[in-house]
Design brief:
Layout: H1 5-31, H2 42-62, H3 66-87, H4 91-115, H5 123-147, H6 153-169, H7 172-191, H8 196-217, H9 223-239, H10 256-268, H11 272-295, H12 298-310, H13 312-317, H14 324-344, H15 347-363, H16 367-384, H17 388-417, H18 424-437, H19 443-464, H20 481-484, H21 497-520, H22 532-553, H23 556-580, H24 591-594, H25 600-607, H26 611-618, E1 626-630, E2 641-644, H27 649-657, H28 661-670, E3 673-679, H29 680-685, H30 693-696, H31 700-703, E4 705-711, E5 714-719, E6 741-742, E7 745-746, E8 750-753, E9 756-758, E10 767-771, E11 779-786, E12 792-801, E13 806-815, E14 821-831, E15 836-843, E16 850-858, E17 862-872
Helix pairs in contact: 1-22, 1-23, 2-8, 2-23, 3-8, 4-5, 4-6, 5-10, 5-11, 9-10, 11-12, 11-14, 11-22, 12-22, 14-15, 14-16, 15-17, 16-17, 16-21, 21-22, 22-23
């Protein structure tokens, strides 16, 4: 073992280099934003805001202004909790989450006391395990309630009342006495003036927590929230129990976590699931601290929790109503139980481990790889410690508990889909059978050249190119945490061998988990979240080595410099969260919604393109409507039945099997479909996914469907059994083919920059040639037209690119009678090197009188325009492609 200065110096430098790299990556996201993600003028502002806040914390701490720092931290906590009560009326979700957590603690405390009788637990260990145990039991009870079709409010309230009476009221006096004792001890602690570290910890926590808190309080708008996590949970509540979605889709993925979500929705509305997931994030952080505290000491435990909570992946994902932090909390608790077992070899720990592992695996299959990896490595460790036979027997009991908790869901999924591990069972069988059916060319070579290299480079990729495994952000989502965890600590004598072995179990188990995930789901970062507690512990171990050495040397300067490096790492993790938020929010975080300057309807209308379309459909007469949806699988925020063609087999089959337009119209109406919803930007962005010739290569949408809604590229058509007779469209655009000029000026058009008239035309003798802003020949044109308010319009033209990578911008600016802007509607589209018809539907707002149509480009390539049209209705009078 190396105890000298060299290892400490190397570790210190490695921490400094990793922190510097994390800062560099995060600053690149701000100063050199990815063209694939929208940037905002607020990005620089947030850079300065976080820099000032972190700097202020450091200044107050070193100036010994402990009470002032504590005052500002407590004031911030009060602000974050109290303001939403008045601005977004969050009281009911608050009370719901608090009640469930309280009951969960009461139930779990009873179980933990019973199972771990005689085992010493600190108060905070007992608290964490009790809350998680109680929530798991509530999920089981909720699953039984749903299985028997008893999701009704009186039954739910009655059941919670019984649990409250049995497990809370009987203990509340003891809890209050404990709290009063803790408050008294805390007061004594403050009177003695030892509050510097408390103030620092609370201030840093608030700074890390505030973005997650604001995101969690905003209305859910992420893909999986809208397609099944919340829409499915809400559906169960509406139907009174667990039944298959009539739409099909991802409904089989709703397991234990969604049972808690359904309970929250029933009692507190759609705001509660995100709060539950955020609570699970905090429990995950708490278990990371508890592991660090048991393995090292309190300081290293705090550092491990800080490192884990600070990474952007945790801070952002934990604020949504996904369930990956549920899995992380339960699998980390599973690891904590194994640590407890390794200390006293009491099988009681493995009973709890079986429960936590069973709930984790029962809620999501992504828990499986980390459980398998951890158990495999722990079994190897027990073999070396000559306790394998005892562990093997106990592992059988633990495995039985895991199986009992998972089996009901697997049976249900098999009955619903034919795959107990939907959808990964079938996928895995296909992947494993591929080498057998393929020619005998070297599969081993293929594995070495691709999968093995990906596996080895995974820690580097997720740091330097995290978008490879997390496509929703430009990068930096795990900071440099994997680099910080480089096992230099393995060679230090400052860390006991038992601690080294257990951290190695966690890290090696994580490696096995990543390897399994690469086979099944490509080890996407969100699915890999359960491995990051162990990476954080490995990183904290390196910091622990440095601190232990500096303590012996009493080096104040180097110790404070290490402290500043940790804060710099925390600062670097705030910026990727800002860059990741690509919703239509200039401020990035939902500040206006949080402060009550924007209501829920406006927030959803601005950030969720289909929201207004959903409201429009729900307002149509006739009760609950059935909608065939192309380019959209979202189901939340509507009472209508949305059949997305991507995940509803019936809808998909109708579109691919129809022989002609008439047959499709009749069959859709026969199946109860009244409307077709098309997300035009999404359909054009992933054409391979929504390639249905009956829709985009025929006149079906014009002959048998009437366009009744168009906004933000979301189109709603009403289906008719017979062909429609539409009014003859009238093109409002003057000089639409650019045949008329007056000197260098186009007649009827306002032009700016370099404008060219070409003799190559789609129809007639002339067309307009424009170049993008990256060219020295950049130019654009517009025309103002008088229109009617609240009227659907078709805006279109023929266009042809002169080179590759050309992008055009279709833009409509709606003006009032005083020519003031009401709103703008726009979309970017790629242009090919042959003539194609480009069109865009939009609805003129109330009080609009004029519209400005723009022809402009991106990049530098030249594009020809011809036959420009703006016409009321869903057609232009020019020749269109089918």
């Amino acid at each position: 073992m190396i105890k000298g200065k060299f290892l400490v110096l190397l570790t210190y430098l490695w921490v400094a280099v990793s922190t510097g790299l994390s800062l560099y990556i995060s600053l690149l996201l701000i100063f050199r934003p990815s063209p694939l993600f929208p940037s905002s003028y607020w990005d620089i502002r947030w850079l300065w805001i976080f820099a000032i806040l972190f700097g202020s914390i450091v200044a107050l701490f070193f100036l010994a202004a402990d009470r002032l720092l504590l005052f500002f931290a407590l004031l911030s906590v009060a602000f974050l909790i109290i303001v939403p009560l008045f601005t977004i009326h969050i009281l009911l979700p608050y009370l719901t989450v608090a009640l469930i957590l309280l009951i969960g603690f009461g139930v779990g405390d009873t179980v933990i006391q019973t199972v771990l009788r005689g085992v010493h637990l600190s108060k905070i260990e007992r608290f964490a395990m009790s809350v998680l145990m109680g929530l798991g039991i509530i999920m089981i009870l909720r699953s039984l309630q749903g299985a028997f079709g008893l999701f009704f409010l009186p039954i739910t309230l009655g059941g919670l009342g019984i649990l409250f009476f049995l497990f809370v009221l009987t203990k509340i006096k003891r809890w209050i006495n404990t709290i009063l004792l803790q408050v008294e001890q805390l007061g004594q602690f403050f009177r003695e003036g030892n509050i510097a570290n408390v103030a620092l910890g609370l201030a840093v926590f608030v700074l890390l927590f505030a973005p997650s808190w604001m995101i969690a309080l905003a209305p859910p708008i992420r893909y999986d929230e809208l397609t099944y996590h919340l829409s499915g949970s809400q559906f169960y509540v509406e139907q009174g129990g667990i039944i298959p979605f009539p739409e099909g889709g991802n409904n089989p993925w709703l397991h234990y976590a969604e049972m808690l979500y359904s309970l929250g929705i029933e009692l507190g509305g759609l705001a509660t699931p995100r709060l539950f997931h955020l609570a699970m994030t905090l429990l995950s952080v708490l278990f990371v601290y508890l592991l660090g505290n048991r393995l090292f000491n309190r300081r290293t435990g705090i550092i491990a929790g800080f490192l884990f909570f600070s990474i952007p992946l945790v801070a952002y994902e934990g604020a949504t109503a996904y369930i990956d932090l549920f899995v992380t909390a339960f699998t980390t608790a599973f690891g904590f139980c194994l640590l407890g077992y390794s200390g006293d070899l009491s099988r009681r720990w493995l009973i709890l481990a079986g429960f936590f592992g069973g709930i984790g695996l029962g809620m999501k299959l992504s828990a499986g790889p980390i459980l398998v990896g951890f158990l495999a490595c722990f079994a190897v460790l027990s073999l070396f410690q000559k306790t394998f036979s005892k562990f093997l027997f106990s592992m059988g009991v633990m495995g039985s508990i895991i199986l009992i908790l998972c089996l009901p869901w697997w049976i249900r999924d098999y009955l619903w889909t034919g795959d107990p591990f939907f959808p990964y069972g079938g996928d895995l069988v296909r992947k494993l059978s591929t080498p057998i059916i393929e020619p005998a060319r070297s599969t081993q070579s293929s594995f070495i050249n691709s999968d093995l290299i990906r596996f080895i480079s995974y820690p580097i990729d997720i740091v330097l190119n995290s978008r490879k495994y997390y496509h929703e952000a430009p990068g930096g989502m795990v900071a440099t945490l994997p680099f910080l965890a480089l096992p230099l600590w393995l060679f230090s004598s400052f860390i006991p061998n038992r601690t080294k072995k257990f951290i190695l179990v966690g890290l090696c188990g994580s490696m096995i988990a990543i390897g399994v995930m690469m086979i099944v789901n490509n080890a996407l970062l969100r699915y890999a979240l359960p491995v990051f507690p162990w990476i954080a512990l490995g990183a904290a171990a390196n910091v622990h080595v440095v601190y232990k050495y500096l303590e012996n040397k009493e080096s104040w300067l180097l110790g404070n410099l290490l402290f500043l490096l940790l804060l710099a790492f925390g600062f670097s993790t705030r910026l990727p969260i800002i860059a990741r938020l690509s919703e239509n929010l200039p401020q990035r975080l939902p500040i206006n919604y949080f402060l009550g300057r924007e209501n829920r309807e406006d927030y959803l209308s601005r950030n969720l393109p289909v929201y207004d379309a959903f409201r429009f459909i729900d307002q149509q007469p006739g009760g609950r409507h059935r909608v065939l949806s192309v380019g959209n699988e979202f189901r939340l925020y509507t009472s209508s039945r949305i059949d997305g063609v991507w995940d509803v087999k019936e809808a998909h089959q109708l579109l691919i099997s129809a022989q002609n337009e008439s047959e499709l119209a009749i069959e859709l109406l026969k199946r109860g479909y009244e409307y077709i919803l098309i997300n035009q930007p999404e359909v054009e962005f992933v054409k391979w996914k929504y390639d249905y010739p009956i829709l985009n290569q025929s006149h079906f949408l014009v002959r048998y469907c009437q366009l009744i809604f168009a906004k933000n590229g979301i189109l709603v058509y009403k289906i008719f059994p017979e062909p429609l007779v539409l009014p003859q469209p009238n093109n409002l655009v003057q000089n639409e083919s650019f045949e008329e000029t007056s000197g260098d000026q186009l007649v009827a058009w306002y032009q700016d920059g370099s404008i060219f008239v070409s003799n190559e035309a789609y129809e007639g003798t002339r067309s307009l040639l424009l170049y993008g802003p990256l060219s020295d020949k950049f130019g654009w044109v517009k025309q103002k037209l008088e229109i009617e308010s609240n009227q659907l319009y078709t805006f279109g033209y023929w266009a042809k690119a002169l080179g590759n990578n050309a992008i055009l911008l279709m833009q409509l600016r709606w003006l009032d009678e005083n020519e003031n802007l009401i709103e703008s509607d726009e979309i970017w589209k790629n242009v090919e090197t042959e003539w194609n018809w480009f069109y865009w539907y939009s609805q003129s707002p109330q009080k609009s009188k004029f519209v400005e149509i723009y022809l402009s480009l991106g990049n530098s390539e030249g594009v020809l325009f011809d036959q420009v049209c703006l016409a009321a209705g869903q057609m232009c009078p020019v020749k269109e492609q089918p």
